[in-house]
From TrEMBL:
InterPro entries: MORN. It comes from Hanusia phi. This is MORN repeat-containing protein 5. It comes from the Eukaryota. The lineage of its organism: Eukaryota, Cryptophyceae, Pyrenomonadales, Geminigeraceae, Hanusia. Gene3D superfamilies: Histone H3 K4-specific methyltransferase SET7/9 N-terminal domain. Keywords: Repeat. Pfam families: MORN.
Amino acid sequence: VKIMYPDGFHVHNYPSGSRYEGHWKGGRKHGHGTYIYAGGGKYVGDFSDDKRHGKGCYSYPDGDVYEGEFRFGRREGSGKYKYAKGECYEGEWQADRMHGKGRYTYSTGKVYDGMWAEDRPHGEGRLIDGNNVYEMSYQNGTVTRQQLKKDQQQPGSSGGVVDAFTWLQQAVSCQPVGPCMDKRSDWRK
Protein backbone atom coordinates (compact mmCIF):
# COMPACT_ATOMS: atom_id res chain seq x y z
CA VAL A 1 0.00 0.00 0.00
CA LYS A 2 1.45 3.31 -1.06
CA ILE A 3 1.30 6.09 1.50
CA MET A 4 1.32 9.41 -0.27
CA TYR A 5 3.70 11.69 1.53
CA PRO A 6 5.73 14.27 -0.32
CA ASP A 7 9.37 13.23 -0.67
CA GLY A 8 11.33 13.92 2.52
CA PHE A 9 11.19 13.11 6.22
CA HIS A 10 7.85 12.04 7.73
CA VAL A 11 6.51 10.01 10.68
CA HIS A 12 3.86 7.39 9.99
CA ASN A 13 1.92 5.33 12.55
CA TYR A 14 0.47 2.11 11.12
CA PRO A 15 -2.86 0.62 12.27
CA SER A 16 -0.91 -2.48 13.44
CA GLY A 17 0.91 -0.36 16.03
CA SER A 18 4.17 -0.18 14.06
CA ARG A 19 5.79 3.20 13.45
CA TYR A 20 8.17 4.57 10.82
CA GLU A 21 10.21 7.74 11.24
CA GLY A 22 12.30 8.53 8.22
CA HIS A 23 12.61 9.52 4.62
CA TRP A 24 10.07 8.83 1.91
CA LYS A 25 10.34 8.93 -1.86
CA GLY A 26 7.44 8.34 -4.25
CA GLY A 27 5.18 7.22 -1.39
CA ARG A 28 7.64 4.56 -0.15
CA LYS A 29 10.23 4.35 2.63
CA HIS A 30 13.46 5.41 0.97
CA GLY A 31 16.66 6.70 2.57
CA HIS A 32 17.52 6.58 6.27
CA GLY A 33 14.84 5.77 8.82
CA THR A 34 13.71 3.97 11.96
CA TYR A 35 10.97 1.34 11.87
CA ILE A 36 9.58 0.21 15.23
CA TYR A 37 7.57 -3.01 14.91
CA ALA A 38 4.42 -3.59 16.95
CA GLY A 39 5.91 -6.91 18.11
CA GLY A 40 8.91 -5.21 19.72
CA GLY A 41 11.56 -5.32 16.99
CA LYS A 42 13.32 -2.20 15.75
CA TYR A 43 15.27 -1.42 12.57
CA VAL A 44 17.46 1.65 12.19
CA GLY A 45 19.13 2.08 8.83
CA ASP A 46 18.71 2.47 5.11
CA PHE A 47 15.58 1.76 3.08
CA SER A 48 15.00 1.51 -0.65
CA ASP A 49 11.61 1.09 -2.31
CA ASP A 50 9.91 0.27 1.03
CA LYS A 51 12.44 -2.44 2.01
CA ARG A 52 15.45 -2.58 4.36
CA HIS A 53 18.29 -2.05 1.90
CA GLY A 54 21.84 -0.90 2.64
CA LYS A 55 23.42 -0.70 6.09
CA GLY A 56 21.30 -1.07 9.18
CA CYS A 57 20.77 -2.48 12.64
CA TYR A 58 17.84 -4.74 13.55
CA SER A 59 17.13 -5.36 17.25
CA TYR A 60 14.92 -8.39 17.91
CA PRO A 61 12.37 -8.51 20.76
CA ASP A 62 14.35 -11.34 22.45
CA GLY A 63 17.50 -9.19 22.69
CA ASP A 64 19.35 -10.52 19.63
CA VAL A 65 20.89 -7.82 17.38
CA TYR A 66 21.97 -7.92 13.73
CA GLU A 67 24.13 -5.10 12.41
CA GLY A 68 25.26 -5.09 8.82
CA GLU A 69 24.10 -5.11 5.25
CA PHE A 70 20.59 -5.69 3.94
CA ARG A 71 19.42 -6.24 0.37
CA PHE A 72 15.75 -6.11 -0.59
CA GLY A 73 14.62 -6.69 3.01
CA ARG A 74 17.01 -9.56 3.82
CA ARG A 75 20.33 -9.87 5.63
CA GLU A 76 22.78 -10.05 2.75
CA GLY A 77 26.46 -9.16 2.46
CA SER A 78 28.56 -8.78 5.59
CA GLY A 79 27.12 -8.47 9.06
CA LYS A 80 27.35 -9.29 12.75
CA TYR A 81 24.63 -11.14 14.66
CA LYS A 82 24.88 -10.98 18.47
CA TYR A 83 22.67 -13.41 20.37
CA ALA A 84 21.22 -12.36 23.72
CA LYS A 85 22.68 -15.58 25.20
CA GLY A 86 26.22 -14.30 24.50
CA GLU A 87 27.09 -15.99 21.21
CA CYS A 88 28.04 -14.08 18.07
CA TYR A 89 28.40 -14.67 14.32
CA GLU A 90 30.35 -12.22 12.19
CA GLY A 91 30.74 -12.79 8.49
CA GLU A 92 28.93 -13.20 5.21
CA TRP A 93 25.16 -13.54 4.75
CA GLN A 94 23.01 -14.62 1.84
CA ALA A 95 19.20 -14.64 1.68
CA ASP A 96 18.87 -14.06 5.47
CA ARG A 97 21.24 -16.94 6.33
CA MET A 98 24.85 -17.32 7.46
CA HIS A 99 26.50 -18.16 4.16
CA GLY A 100 30.14 -17.79 3.08
CA LYS A 101 33.13 -17.01 5.30
CA GLY A 102 32.27 -16.37 8.94
CA ARG A 103 33.39 -16.56 12.55
CA TYR A 104 31.07 -17.92 15.27
CA THR A 105 31.97 -17.35 18.92
CA TYR A 106 30.14 -19.65 21.36
CA SER A 107 29.21 -18.60 24.90
CA THR A 108 31.70 -21.23 26.14
CA GLY A 109 34.56 -19.35 24.46
CA LYS A 110 34.98 -21.81 21.57
CA VAL A 111 35.38 -20.16 18.17
CA TYR A 112 34.63 -21.64 14.75
CA ASP A 113 36.20 -19.68 11.90
CA GLY A 114 35.40 -21.02 8.45
CA MET A 115 32.86 -21.57 5.74
CA TRP A 116 29.07 -21.60 6.17
CA ALA A 117 26.08 -22.54 4.01
CA GLU A 118 22.40 -22.15 4.88
CA ASP A 119 23.09 -21.28 8.57
CA ARG A 120 25.37 -24.32 9.11
CA PRO A 121 29.13 -24.89 9.03
CA HIS A 122 29.90 -26.28 5.56
CA GLY A 123 33.35 -26.78 4.09
CA GLU A 124 36.70 -26.04 5.71
CA GLY A 125 37.38 -24.13 8.92
CA ARG A 126 39.14 -24.02 12.29
CA LEU A 127 37.71 -24.68 15.72
CA ILE A 128 39.59 -23.01 18.57
CA ASP A 129 38.84 -24.57 21.95
CA GLY A 130 41.08 -23.19 24.68
CA ASN A 131 44.66 -24.04 23.70
CA ASN A 132 43.57 -26.57 21.07
CA VAL A 133 43.13 -25.68 17.41
CA TYR A 134 41.33 -28.17 15.18
CA GLU A 135 41.21 -28.19 11.39
CA MET A 136 37.59 -29.02 10.57
CA SER A 137 35.56 -30.13 7.57
CA TYR A 138 31.77 -29.99 7.61
CA GLN A 139 29.04 -31.21 5.30
CA ASN A 140 25.71 -29.46 6.01
CA GLY A 141 26.60 -28.95 9.69
CA THR A 142 27.94 -32.48 10.23
CA VAL A 143 31.65 -32.98 11.01
CA THR A 144 33.35 -35.02 8.28
CA ARG A 145 36.93 -34.44 9.45
CA GLN A 146 38.47 -33.13 12.66
CA GLN A 147 42.23 -32.92 13.09
CA LEU A 148 44.13 -31.40 15.97
CA LYS A 149 46.93 -29.13 14.81
CA LYS A 150 49.92 -30.69 16.54
CA ASP A 151 51.99 -27.51 16.42
CA GLN A 152 49.22 -25.65 18.24
CA GLN A 153 49.04 -28.16 21.11
CA GLN A 154 52.58 -29.34 21.82
CA PRO A 155 55.34 -26.71 22.21
CA GLY A 156 58.50 -27.64 20.29
CA SER A 157 56.76 -30.03 17.89
CA SER A 158 57.71 -30.23 14.25
CA GLY A 159 54.35 -28.78 13.21
CA GLY A 160 51.76 -30.05 10.82
CA VAL A 161 48.37 -31.57 11.30
CA VAL A 162 47.76 -34.99 12.85
CA ASP A 163 44.61 -36.95 13.47
CA ALA A 164 43.19 -36.01 16.90
CA PHE A 165 42.86 -39.64 17.99
CA THR A 166 46.46 -40.43 16.91
CA TRP A 167 47.71 -37.41 18.84
CA LEU A 168 45.79 -38.52 21.94
CA GLN A 169 47.27 -42.04 21.69
CA GLN A 170 50.79 -40.59 21.48
CA ALA A 171 50.21 -38.17 24.32
CA VAL A 172 49.04 -40.80 26.79
CA SER A 173 50.93 -43.85 25.40
CA CYS A 174 47.94 -46.17 25.14
CA GLN A 175 46.13 -48.38 22.68
CA PRO A 176 42.58 -47.78 21.51
CA VAL A 177 41.12 -50.68 23.53
CA GLY A 178 40.10 -50.35 27.16
CA PRO A 179 40.81 -47.53 29.60
CA CYS A 180 44.28 -46.00 29.61
CA MET A 181 46.41 -43.68 31.68
CA ASP A 182 49.46 -41.56 30.92
CA LYS A 183 52.38 -43.90 31.50
CA ARG A 184 54.84 -41.01 31.61
CA SER A 185 53.55 -39.60 34.87
CA ASP A 186 52.16 -40.84 38.13
CA TRP A 187 48.49 -39.73 38.15
CA ARG A 188 48.35 -39.88 41.95
CA LYS A 189 50.82 -37.00 42.46
